[in-house]
Write a structure and sequence with these properties.
Blueprint: E1 4-5, E2 12-14, H1 25-40, E3 43-47, H2 53-67, H3 71-74, E4 87-90, E5 93-102, H4 107-117, H5 123-150, H6 155-163, E6 165-174, E7 184-189, E8 195-200, E9 207-210, E10 216-218, E11 225-230, H7 232-237, E12 247-250, E13 258-267, E14 271-272, E15 289-290, H8 292-302, H9 307-315
Parallel strand pairs: 1-10, 2-3
Antiparallel strand pairs: 3-11, 4-5, 5-6, 6-13, 7-12, 8-11, 8-13, 9-10, 9-12, 14-15
Bound molecules: 2-oxoglutaric acid (AKG) and fe (ii) ion.
2-oxoglutaric acid (AKG) is lined by residues 170, 172, 186, 191, 198, 200, 207, 247, 249, 260, 262.
Length: 317
């Protein structure tokens, strides 16, 4: 396996930049950076300073409260969708635990989850998580717009693509390893999503991504750094141009609990590959129309871990 390098090898797109408006030169060049990064590495860093210290602290304490609930409470079903509920107590991943919040950009989604976890209510949890998720949602939407624009796919289609996105906020916790215990937090994988936005919430590192040259790169946590990653479905949508990002979590040198958040998108309507992606030089590689949630059902049934094999098996033509 390749050696490890630093985050600054990864392109950074500054979304905080006031001049970054569609039509400007700054926008056009940022779109190019996004496209090249997604094609090369399957990810990039979005800098966005909308999460202040106060919100960050209240989300960390919300997670401490959430993970502190009894196991039976955390294991309750909060969504009927596949892969949207509790994960933990996995013998090969003893450090890892996570809970999913379905539809977190909508206050109703957060209320539904909160009322299952705390039948007596917990407004503070509900409101801070919703406010936080909305910021991650902004990162997701603006970067998707950049992808569409960089490929010259029309903005009408971009809007319906974004609107058909179902959001899942996964709250992740990793405890530090005990002596002689594995350091593996999460095994290497690509996400089944269209796009994933990851935020290492409490400054404890652990997320690593595999870049184009095969090296593993440690992603530095920062309150204003969001790792935007392509999932399997983005590869299919782009007829293989975008590469899904392989990543893992290793709890090396960690003395504290690591909290991380992932905003994942799964498209609800039938997804259509834009015709711009198919020509003589680029023949059709995947089903041009697909049902993203059916892909989740396929994975649930077949459990193919290798991303390339899984994508070929389900989407290949
Ligand atoms: O903990 C992280 O930062 C990554 C989580 C992740 O890769 C996942 O939930 O799919
Ligand atoms: Fe992941």
């Amino acid at each position: 396996m390749g050696s490890q390098t630093e985050t600054h090898d990864l392109p950074i797109v500054d979304l905080t930049d006031e001049t970054l408006k569609p039509g400007t030169e700054a926008w056009v060049s940022a779109c190019k950076v996004v496209r090249t990064a997604l094609e090369d590495h399957g990810c990039f860093i979005a800098r966005y300073n909308k999460i202040g210290e106060e919100l960050c602290d209240s989300v960390v304490s919300a997670l401490e409260q959430l993970f502190g609930l009894p196991l039976e409470t955390k294991k309750q079903e909060t969504s009927e969708k596949l892969f949207h509920n509790y994960y933990g107590q996995i013998p090969s991943l003893p450090l890892y635990e996570s809970l999913g919040i379905d539809d977190p950009l909508n206050i109703k989604g957060c209320q539904k989850f909160t009322n299952i976890m705390w039948p007596q209510g917990n407004d503070r949890f509900c409101e801070s998580v919703n406010e936080y998720a909305k910021v991650l949602g902004e990162v997701d939407k603006v970067t998707k717009k950049m992808v569409f624009e960089s490929y010259g796919v029309d903005s009408e289609r971009c809007n319906s693509f974004i609107e058909s996105g179902n959001y899942l906020l996964r709250c992740l916790k990793y405890r530090p390893p005990e002596k002689n215990e594995t350091h593996l937090g999460m095994q290497s994988h690509t996400d089944l999503t269209m796009q994933s936005v990851l935020h290492q919430l409490n400054g404890v590192a652990g997320l690593e991504i595999k870049i184009k040259n095969g090296n593993w790169l440690l992603v530095h946590p920062s309150p204003s750094f969001f790792l935007v990653m392509a999932g399997d479905a983005f590869k299919v949508w782009s007829n293989g141009r975008i590469r899904p990002c392989e990543h893992r979590v290793i709890m090396n040198n960690a003395k504290e609990i690591r909290y991380s958040m992932g905003l994942f998108t799964f498209n609800g309507d039938i997804v259509q590959m834009p015709e711009e992606f198919v020509d003589d030089k680029n023949p059709l590689r995947y089903k041009p129309l697909f049902d993203h949630f059916d892909y989740l059902r396929f994975f649930d049934k077949e459990k193919i871990i290798d991303s390339d094999l899984r994508v070929k098996a389900y989407f290949g033509v």
